[in-house]
Amino acid sequence: MKILRKIIFLLFISLVFIQIGNAEIRKVAQTGLQFLKIDMSARSAGMGGAYTMVGNDASALFGNPAGISEMESNYDIFGSRVNWVADIYYSGAAAAAKLGNLGTVGLHFMTSEYGDIVGTRVADNEDGYIETGNLDLDAYVVGVSYSRRLTNKFTLGGTVKFTSQHLGSNLMPSGETMTNEVSGLGYDFGTIFYPGFRSLRMGMSIRNFSPQFKYEETAFELPLTFRIGFAMDVLDLMGGMNNHSLLVDVDAIHPRDYTERIHVGGEYWYGDIIALRAGYKTNYDEQGLSLGFGLKYDISGIDLKFNYAYSDFGALSNVNRITIGGAF
Q: What does 183-239 look like in DSSP terms, one character per residue?
């Protein structure tokens, strides 16, 4: 009970911290390469992004890299497709492998599809401009991760990733053609700690730590985000139930480019076959409710996984995510 009281106290402090942060000036336009904030996991998105302490397969590489040490299998693969707003699409994939006592390693990548965007240039004609053709736009990130369970209660993980964004070219008044492109390294870190109270775990993650990037004269950093998370199968409080689990996760989030936020999510599993998910995000202009489901089926010793998530983006329409994976 002492541990439970400590957890409640920490949650209370986190909520107070969030409310204080909400009263501050919103720190918008502080970072670049915003695509790095996209949630690539349908499981995570279905739980409202409350995933810091939940990820236990290759999809954890897009959240808390310590999670790959929680894999139940030796190998796990993951693929994702995100139908974002404004006809933008994101694709990603990840793979993780256990190396016995040496730890667990992972590799992931993510790429973007911005669609056809026609470029223009000021011209002395009736329209005042001329078209210069479709802009060449792209963005991607590739990361390598390592995680290790240091004790039976504490796990640590980290990621080194190379990220790049190209926003087309433009003609300067001097007649020079300027290529708008930046690239460089970023880093993710994460921990998971089991205090010993049933299935409760807590920990933190830091995503997109980086030096400054620069487009011409404007310098910026990646969208650095600090998270503290708590998760537990709440059915454990009733002694557990055969073929049922109800995992609840609460994440307190401190982003560099906005005030503090809370993500809350739940995941109900029946028979380790079908999952139903729901989540909610606070302190967003448009985002809020998310729903999702998952299926898992064993074929010849390979656990095949399918997950879908629907996220309400208000006036910006909706976002759909589909992920598939396998564990063996």
A: EEEEEEEEEEE--SSTT-EEEEEEEEE---EEETTEEEB---EEEEEEEEEGGGGGT
CA–CA distance, 63 with 74 (Å, rounded to integer): 20
Spatial contact of 61 and 51, defined as CB atoms under 8 Å apart: no
So what's the pLDDT on residue 5? Answer: 46
Tokens of 319: 């976002």
In the chain, where does DSSP find H-type helix? 2-22, 42-46
Q: Which residue has the tokens 């006592």?
A: 101
Q: Which two tokens stand for residue 18?
A: 């969030």
Residue 190: both structure tokens together = 């994460």
- Distance (Å, rounded) from C-alpha 259 to C-alpha 78? 32
Helix (H) or strand (E) holding 146: strand 137-149
Q: Is residue 21 in some structural domain?
A: yes
d(CA 72, CA 145): 18
Q: How far is CA 19 from CA 14, 52, 144, 196, 252, in A?
A: 9, 21, 36, 30, 11
Asked if residue 20 belongs to a domain, the reply is: yes
Q: What residues contact 196, with CB distance under 8 A and at least 6 apart?
A: 3, 153
CA atoms within 13 A of residue 280's CA, in its CB half-sphere = 2
Structural domain range at position 46: 2-270+314-327
Q: Indicate the number of domains in the chain.
A: 1
Whether residue 99 lies inside any domain: the answer is yes
Confidence of residue 221 (pLDDT cuts 50, 70, 90): confident
Q: Is the pLDDT of residue 172 over 80?
A: no
Residue 291 domain flag: no
- Per-residue pLDDT at 76 exceeds 50: yes
Tokens of 281: 């995000």
Give the length of the chain.
328
pTM value is 0.84
Q: Is the dihedral of CA 228, 233, 234, 236 positive or negative?
A: negative
Average pLDDT over the chain reads 87
